[in-house]
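Quick start: read one record
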Amino acid sequence: MTVYYTLTFLLLAAEMGTFCILVAPLPYAIRKKLFNFLSESPIIAKIAYGLKITFLFVGILFVDALQRMWRVTAEAEIARNSGSPIQDVRAETNFAARKFYSQRNTYLTGFCLFLSLVLTRTFYIILDLIHTQEEYAKLKQETANSSRSKIASDDQAKQIEELKNKLAESEAKSRDFEILKKQAAQNGIEYDRLASEYNKKTGTVSDKRKD
C-alpha cells in the first residue's frame, strides 16, 4: 500500500477511535469539559482546519480509486463479452490484484470520508445536547426559585390577610367599646337628671349633685 493510502488508513483508524470517545458513556461533567474544550480551543480549531484540507485530498483519492475500479470492472466485462478468457495465470493474478486494490482503495477512502461526516454531525448533536441540558438546568433552577418566591409571597399574603382580619376585629371591638362608653355616659346623665328631679320633689340634697 502506498504512502498516501497508508496515511488514509491511519486517518480512518483515528476517526474510529475519536468516534468511540465521543459516544462513550462518560459522566456529564467530563463530557461537558471535553466538548467545551474541543469547541472553544484555538489549537483544535487549527487542527480541524488542517483536517479539512486533508479530507479534500482524500476526496481526490476517492475519485481516483473509483475511476480505477470502474476501469478494471469495464476491462473484466470486455474480456467476458469477447469470449477470450485470460489464459496466463500471472496475467489473471495481476488482474485480480488490480481489481482487489482498486476496490480496497475505494472502500478505504470512501469510508474515511463517510466517517468524517458522521463524526462532524455526531459532535454537533452532542454539543447541542449539552447546551440544551445546561439551559434545562438553568430553567429548572429559575422555576424552583420562582416557586419558592411564590410560596413566600403566598405566606406573606396569608399573614397580611390575618393581620387585616385581626385589625377588623380590633376595630369592631373598639366600636363596641365606644358604643358602650356612650351608653354609659348617657345612662349617667339620665341618672343625674332623675336624681335631680327626685331631690327636687323630696327636698333632699345629693352630694353628687353638689359636685
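The chain has one domain: 3-158.
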